[in-house]
Amino acid sequence: MINRLRVLRAERAWSQQDLAERLDVSRQSVNAIETGRYDPSLPLAFRIADLFGLTIEEIFTNPNRKD
Amino acid sequence: MINRLRVLRAERAWSQQDLAERLDVSRQSVNAIETGRYDPSLPLAFRIADLFGLTIEEIFTNPNRKD
DNA sequence: CCCATATGGAAAGCTTGGTTGACATTCCGC
DNA sequence: GCGGAATGTCAACCAAGCTTTCCATATGGG
């Protein structure tokens, strides 16, 4: 599972802390997701998509998919 | 988080067991997701969407969203 | 040189997702 | 009425998401 979180955050010039507060999670969670240490839960993925006004598919991509 | 899994499964006349095998999870997991006892992980949500040829947003809806 | 801000990451602990195995119920065909 | 298939649920367990606390490094301004 790879994601464009870091790019989207950079486009808005938000710190990991800023993003964490908007998503109502800890800064470490944002960091862990950005650095690929783990995947967000589905509810959190929806919050992320909502925040950026994108679909989950536009932010996260499943490497196992045969696109 | 509510989902249309049961409907999609019924449209194809698959048992929970059939669906579980296609998703490579246990039947109890399919049942728990259908009955809303918990939400799938993001990777599993992607597998479900791929299997039905839909987007995650077309299958799962976040009740907290202001649509 | 200090200090504040931003980032990466580890440890321990709680919560949630997922498994296996078991049991009960409903429904349908024989 | 009986047997088998489908579903709901529970208990016990392991794995993954997430939190808090802590430490390290980098960088930019004064």
From TrEMBL, chains A, B:
Keywords: DNA-binding. GO terms for molecular function: DNA binding. The keyword Chloroplast does not apply. InterPro entries: Cro/C1-type_HTH, Lambda_DNA-bd_dom_sf. It holds the Pfam family HTH_3. Residues 5-59 form the HTH cro/C1-type domain. Coiled coil: none annotated. Transmembrane segments: none annotated. PANTHER family: DNA-BIDING PHAGE PROTEIN, TRACRIPTIONAL REGULATORY PROTEIN-RELATED-RELATED. This is Putative transcriptional regulator. It comes from Sphingomonas leidyi. The lineage of its organism: Bacteria, Pseudomonadati, Pseudomonadota, Alphaproteobacteria, Sphingomonadales.
